[in-house]
Amino acid sequence: MSSPGATFNPLNTLAPKSKTKKKHFVQQKVEVFRASNPVLSVLMWGVNHSINDLSQVPVPVMLLPDDFKASTKIKVSNHLFNKENLPGQFKFKDYCPQVFRNLREHFGIEDQDYQVSLARSPPLKDEEGQRGKLMLTSYDRTLVVKEISSEEVEEVHDILSEYHQHIVTCHGSTLLPQFLAMYRVSVESEDTYLLVMRNMFSHRLHVHRKYDLKGSLVSREASFKEKVKELPTYKDVDFRNNMQKVYVSDEAKEKIVEKLNRDIEFLVRMRFMDYSLLLGIHDVERAERQEEEEEEEEEEMESSYEEEKEDENSMAPEGIGGYMNSFKPMGPGEFDPYVDVYAIQSAVDAPQREVYFMGLIDVLTQYDTKKKAAHAAKAVKHGAGAEISTVHPEQYAKRFREFITKIFA
């Protein structure tokens, strides 16, 4: 794959490139930014616009301190050509575009694929959004777009230089969230801040069970309301009660623990705490049974499906997960490690065939006065020695690391 940051001879390359791009988007102009929510329409429009603009900007030899403070802003007024799909007035801000372009490159994501994954079809709303905040998954399920607060935008800015350095040092091999872009969408004087990350779960393998683990047993059990959901998020107490284990080879475990230790050192340095390990489990046997049931239904619908597939394949480029369509179809439990970067196959001698997805989430909580107050209150309630989740970063890291190394069989 050619790197998104390849340098072009402007005379040879830029003119034809912009021409083909233009043609590609004119053809789709009407549908491309249609979403039920104006914020999503503007997000799609803005991503498309900013990636097209960025493709005309030479990749810098090295990032400068100013790149970590930079942003590009676009203001659109009296927007008429596409008004059934986009609001008449809106603003779009792309934070630190050069830095995020560089991060995408380190994570092996080409800008054109990123653009297609976010701008070809509207992202899908996820009911997991906390406290009424938007939580979106790109239509091809490779990206997650999370609404964050203006304070969190500041936090990302504060750590971006160190985060970037960490990603460069570990060659993009990390359990941390892969931050790919940060935007502000302004519609009707209301600002929405959005952080784009790679989806930790697979774009094609269904997760049958998931856990959010912090290494604390105090108030760490899924509520009854949570447990009746189709895919509940279980917690530490549930993990222990279910006698759950992760069955991977010694070599895979060593790699995971090495990544984990490196990432936790970074989080301690940044004074972060209260993060979790997100663990998703794909049950291969269950997926095979489901596939057999679906195959019978599919045979009836085969002819219309073939026509659809041809239409789909004629629409290039394919997005982050889409380029795999041209290779042999994958069976249950198979994944491409370049796309499903958080996936780990269960060991050959595991009691059941599973695929695990493991990554660190909610990493932006700093040990500030709010957490100190929460810690004091919990210590009074549960006793100073109780395993509560709001503890000092070093203490949190030590307890977290000890707990996570015990989840393996």
TrEMBL record:
<feature type="region of interest" description="Disordered">
    <location>
        <begin position="287"/>
        <end position="316"/>
    </location>
</feature>
<keyword id="KW-0418">Kinase</keyword>
<keyword id="KW-0443">Lipid metabolism</keyword>
<dbReference type="GO" id="GO:0016308">
    <property type="term" value="F:1-phosphatidylinositol-4-phosphate 5-kinase activity"/>
</dbReference>
<keyword id="KW-0547">Nucleotide-binding</keyword>
<feature type="domain" description="PIPK">
    <location>
        <begin position="35"/>
        <end position="408"/>
    </location>
</feature>
<keyword id="KW-0963">Cytoplasm</keyword>
<dbReference type="InterPro" id="IPR027484">
    <property type="entry name" value="PInositol-4-P-5-kinase_N"/>
</dbReference>
<feature type="compositionally biased region" description="Acidic residues">
    <location>
        <begin position="290"/>
        <end position="313"/>
    </location>
</feature>
<keyword id="KW-0808">Transferase</keyword>
<keyword id="KW-0256">Endoplasmic reticulum</keyword>
<dbReference type="GO" id="GO:0005783">
    <property type="term" value="C:endoplasmic reticulum"/>
</dbReference>
<dbReference type="Pfam" id="PF01504">
    <property type="entry name" value="PIP5K"/>
</dbReference>
<dbReference type="GO" id="GO:0005886">
    <property type="term" value="C:plasma membrane"/>
</dbReference>
<dbReference type="InterPro" id="IPR002498">
    <property type="entry name" value="PInositol-4-P-4/5-kinase_core"/>
</dbReference>
<dbReference type="GO" id="GO:0046854">
    <property type="term" value="P:phosphatidylinositol phosphate biosynthetic process"/>
</dbReference>
<protein>
    <recommendedName>
        <fullName>Phosphatidylinositol 5-phosphate 4-kinase type-2 gamma</fullName>
        <ecNumber>2.7.1.149</ecNumber>
    </recommendedName>
</protein>
<dbReference type="GO" id="GO:0016309">
    <property type="term" value="F:1-phosphatidylinositol-5-phosphate 4-kinase activity"/>
</dbReference>
<dbReference type="GO" id="GO:0005524">
    <property type="term" value="F:ATP binding"/>
</dbReference>
<dbReference type="InterPro" id="IPR027483">
    <property type="entry name" value="PInositol-4-P-4/5-kinase_C_sf"/>
</dbReference>
<keyword id="KW-0067">ATP-binding</keyword>
<dbReference type="InterPro" id="IPR023610">
    <property type="entry name" value="PInositol-4/5-P-5/4-kinase"/>
</dbReference>
